[in-house]
């Protein structure tokens, strides 16, 4: 099962966006396209029908080994063995939900401002929703938080967060540029004629942003006479990236030996010259 920190594309059901196609077929296409977490959201559906949908989606997501989240209904989540629930600001309080669900279930909380986000973080949420970033039919009347809140969440919130609300292939880059690493789309995916293709397109944008971020955060160093690019910020991080942490090595940084106890704080700057020398003890 995928960890939340590794998730990149969150897809929510929205039957009103795909008349003539079943929810299960549409969500399977989303999973084929790479969706790595699925939420059942059925605000106006009779509860017995929501339960049947939840059982079907639980079986489907287990086959694809992705987390399955139920919106609002803790009882349904427990009944079908869902991985967790997603709650809004007016739903059951986080502490009560945790007491009912226990420590191992995922609890996500919708937030519309940094105060709510930090409260959810302190309260023990596993992730938060940040939105609606843009006006959206799934939250009629809710004022868009814009990418300003996405940027603030990226700077101040340590929890995984998913940007949601009105996100399309036309504006997703602006959301990613603001600091989102995890995107949720409803109508732009489940309302697409090519659901799997829409998912792949979103993931393409997300991966390109990840590559750009890695390049921008990397630095050029010389390791044993060879020029390398690395995201390591310290000698210790470089040693670990090179899988040498458990080897007996001497590290020389810019002509000076770095004691092993100083690796964690010895900074790697652009143009640093590093020599890594293996040695074998003996008598």
UniProtKB/TrEMBL annotation:
Organism: Paenibacillus plantiphilus
NCBIfam families according to UniProt: thiE, thiS
All residue ranges annotated as the Thiamine phosphate synthase/TenI domain in the record: 9-189
Binding site for 2-[(2R,5Z)-2-carboxy-4-methylthiazol-5(2H)-ylidene]ethyl phosphate: 136-138, 166, 186-187
Free-text cofactor note: Binds 1 Mg(2+) ion per subunit.
InterPro entries per UniProt: Aldolase_TIM, Beta-grasp_dom_sf, Mopterin_synth/thiamin_S_b, Thi_S, ThiamineP_synth_sf, ThiamineP_synth_TenI, ThiS/MoaD-like, TMP_synthase
Catalyses which reaction(s): 2-(2-carboxy-4-methylthiazol-5-yl)ethyl phosphate + 4-amino-2-methyl-5-(diphosphooxymethyl)pyrimidine + 2 H(+) = thiamine phosphate + CO2 + diphosphate; 4-methyl-5-(2-phosphooxyethyl)-thiazole + 4-amino-2-methyl-5-(diphosphooxymethyl)pyrimidine + H(+) = thiamine phosphate + diphosphate; 2-[(2R,5Z)-2-carboxy-4-methylthiazol-5(2H)-ylidene]ethyl phosphate + 4-amino-2-methyl-5-(diphosphooxymethyl)pyrimidine + 2 H(+) = thiamine phosphate + CO2 + diphosphate
SUPFAM superfamilies associated with the record: MoaD/ThiS, Thiamin phosphate synthase
UniProt binding sites for Mg(2+): 72, 91
Keyword annotations from UniProtKB, A to Z: Magnesium, Metal-binding, Thiamine biosynthesis, Transferase
Full protein name: Thiamine-phosphate synthase
Gene (name only): thiE
Biological function: Condenses 4-methyl-5-(beta-hydroxyethyl)thiazole monophosphate (THZ-P) and 2-methyl-4-amino-5-hydroxymethyl pyrimidine pyrophosphate (HMP-PP) to form thiamine monophosphate (TMP).
């Amino acid at each position: 099962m995928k960890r939340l920190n590794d998730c990149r594309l969150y897809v929510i059901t929205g039957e009103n966006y795909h008349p003539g196609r079943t929810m299960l077929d549409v969500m399977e296409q989303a999973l084929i396209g790479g969706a790595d977490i699925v939420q059942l959201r059925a605000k106006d559906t009779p509860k017995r029908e929501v339960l049947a949908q939840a059982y079907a989606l639980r079986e489907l997501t287990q086959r694809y080994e992705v987390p399955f989240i139920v919106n609002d209904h803790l009882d349904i989540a427990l009944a079908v063995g869902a991985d967790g629930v997603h709650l809004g600001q007016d739903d059951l309080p986080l502490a009560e939900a945790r007491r009912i669900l226990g420590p191992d279930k995922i609890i996500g909380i919708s937030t519309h401002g940094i105060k709510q986000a930090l409260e959810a973080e302190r309260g023990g949420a596993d992730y938060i929703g940040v939105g609606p970033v843009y006006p959206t039919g799934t939250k009629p009347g809710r004022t868009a938080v814009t990418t300003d809140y996405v940027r603030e969440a990226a700077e101040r919130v340590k929890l995984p967060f998913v940007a949601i609300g009105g996100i399309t292939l036309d504006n997703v880059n602006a959301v990613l540029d603001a600091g989102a690493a995890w995107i949720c789309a409803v109508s732009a995916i489940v309302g697409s004629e090519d659901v799997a293709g829409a998912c792949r397109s979103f993931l393409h944008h997300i991966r390109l942003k990840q590559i750009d971020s890695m390049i921008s955060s990397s630095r050029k160093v010389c390791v044993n006479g060879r020029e390398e690019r690395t995201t390591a910020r310290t000698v210790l991080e470089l040693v670990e990236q090179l899988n040498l942490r458990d080897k007996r090595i001497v590290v020389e940084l810019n002509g000076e030996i770095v004691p092993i106890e100083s690796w964690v704080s010895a900074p790697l700057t652009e143009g640093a010259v590093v020599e890594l020398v293996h040695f074998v003890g003996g008598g």
